[in-house]
Write a structure and sequence with these properties.
CATH topology of the largest domain: Aspartate Aminotransferase, domain 2
Distance between the termini: 50 Å
Strand order of the largest sheet: 2-8-7-6-5-3-4
Order of helices and strands: HEHHEHEHEHEHEHEEHHHHHEEEHEEEH
Strand content: 5-15%
Number of helices: 15
Radius of gyration: 22 Å
Number of strands: 14
Mean pLDDT: 94
Largest sheet: 7 strands, mixed
CATH class of the largest domain: Alpha Beta
Length: 414
Amino acid sequence: MPVSIFPSAHLADVRYEIRGALTRRARELEAAGHEIIKLNIGNPGRYGFDAPAHLREAIAAHLTDSEAYGHEQGLEEARAAIAAQQRARGAQDVAVERIVVGNGVSELIDLSLRALLQPGDEVLLPSPDYPLWSAATLLNGGRPRYYRCLAQNDHLPDPDEIEALVTPRTRALVLINPNNPTGAVYPRALLERLVSIAARHGLLLLADEIYDEILYDGAPFQPLAEVAGAHPCISFGGLSKVHRACGYRVGWLSLSGDPARTAAYRDALQLLAALRLCANVTAQWAVVPALTGRPTIAALTAPGGRLHEARRAVLDGVAASSYLDLVAPAGALYAFPQVRAERLPQFDDNCFALRLLEEEAVLVVPGSSFNVPHSRHLRLTLLPPPAQLAEVFVRIERVLGRMAAEQARTPAVA
């Protein structure tokens, strides 16, 4: 009798709805001839954003140098440029041997947690989080412990709440700054308090800073490593967002702080990097020109730039809505509006997202996909043209209006 093949139990609580059931349904609708406006993924190349020409030229010039395996931690030229960037930002004790280049930050998140966690160890994660962090924690035997980043606090965490979550099993504190999905940018005073908590409890700081230069209206980015000083900190960056090169799959981690406290951990990172041989060599040649060449993102985020105007279209769409509120994103590529409870008391974000897709051909991600319980949020990317985003909010309003009318006709069940 044929035996069924079942997945690992490790996957039971792993979710990634950014590319989940709603996306599969969108593909079915596209196959049936429907044109879908996709706002689910921060993928600049799909929205007409090109990687800078000097990155492409560097790759083309080194094709013949890319055919052998590279160093397991990345090309030395690339790591030297990353180390120089981190030192310029105030990170302590950064060196080439403490940099690892990976196939995107996604791979390095998994690698960094695999090198750290014992079964049952806890990782402090933001809620909402980027769900890969939760998935990587679970897949490496850890337990996510969520600290809230509520809209009423501008999506910033409460340090006292974070410290109350610390137990003897807590190993790391994760920060996503600028934040995906909320667009929050963390002020220095808040980061100082979080570093103090990590220092008191011996926690490794993990700073997801992939959106570090995508900022609006003068919002300042404060690198965590500079605040952390001698305390162990890993800073993650890459080419995907600031340099609009997601398909290159080039990310990096930089281990800063007192080397004596992280020597064994650094060796574990090197071992895991060696087990997967090396990262994509071809695209690593783009790292040096990306970090030393002319900056290109500021023109897009400044007034008149496409990202700035897309954000403005979102802010205008929410302002005109009878149902939505929004903390204006200060950075990154997303907005995280929420539906007002007084206007739509009975609201299910997954039901809404499916209706928006089925009825109005718009794909967004429900807020609950980012590990937010009882979410009234949705995440959408700022990458489409401003006029298209304005149309999206017309469609969102239609669906919310229909849902409100239906609830008005159906008394709530006590």
